[in-house]
Write a structure and sequence with these properties.
The chain is built from six helices and twelve strands. With 239 residues, the chain is an alpha+beta fold. The two termini are 23 Å apart.
Length: 239
């Protein structure tokens, strides 16, 4: 395994944030108009099974919850272009600057999730027994699907970019890997349609029964992709 990729993966996992809400600013040009917060509901194996979205805009000054808005952020390129992923401190600063005062805590924000969006869910389809390498007890394959295309330089902390990554015809634009004491993870970032969608395809060879590194790694990869521009759509498990 490439040592540079391994170090990149270790850095990515070490920087994994605690589970929390996803924050976006809704912008008009360079100016923020409002704040959107989201959270995916996860199955026990980290597949996404639902999405909650709430928001606040300076024009009406009240919090609202809308499954339709969450869907539109993923389906409407115009709205997606106005949604910029930010950290909670950045959301707090924008909320205050827009006259909202102090951004409520995450427990309060979760209480604003009234319009839940269920996502299609099914257990992984196993057409044949998984090919589990010696020394591991399970092998899983995940696809993290995103709407839009990432800014390639912003992926550098979790992938090694392909030489031809800037060419729109290049499908796999970068690869990454991580080895823990018991697990081995490899992933690639893939274009699915020209500017329309992309994915992170992750293979996890698990040596620990708990898979304790898997959840944080999926979270970190999603966070890096969000801040590179695309909006997360779902996490599917293929095996």
């Amino acid at each position: 395994m490439n040592s540079d990729m391994d170090e990149r993966g270790r850095s990515a996992l070490a920087a994994t944030p605690e589970a929390g809400l996803d924050y976006y600013l809704i912008t008009a040009g360079t100016d923020a108009e409002g704040v959107v917060v989201e959270e995916f509901a996860l199955a026990g194996d980290f597949r996404t099974i639902g999405l909650d979205t709430a928001g606040w805009t300076a024009t009406d000054g009240v919090w609202w919850s809308s499954a339709a808005f969450g869907r539109a952020m993923r389906e409407d390129p115009g709205l997606r272009a106005r949604a910029r992923a930010v950290s909670r401190p950045e959301a707090e600063a924008a909320y205050h600057a827009l006259g909202g005062g102090e951004l409520p805590g995450e427990a309060w924000l979760r209480a604003m999730f009234h319009d839940h969006l269920p996502l299609p869910d099914s257990p992984p389809l196993r057409l044949s027994p998984p090919q589990v390498p010696e020394g591991f007890h399970d092998t899983r394959v995940y696809r993290l699907l995103f709407a839009g295309e990432p800014s390639l330089p912003r992926l550098a902390e979790v992938v090694t970019l392909a030489t031809e990554a800037g060419d729109p015809r290049t499908r796999v634009v970068g690869t990454g890997a991580l080895r823990t004491a018991s697990d081995v993870f490899t992933w690639n970032v893939r274009r699915i349609g020209p500017g329309a969608a992309c994915s992170v395809d992750l293979t996890a060879h698990l040596g620990t029964a708990s898979g304790e590194a898997l959840g944080p790694l999926l979270r970190r990869l999603t966070t890096v992709m969000r801040h590179a521009g695309p909006v997360p759509v779902t996490v599917e498990r293929f095996s």
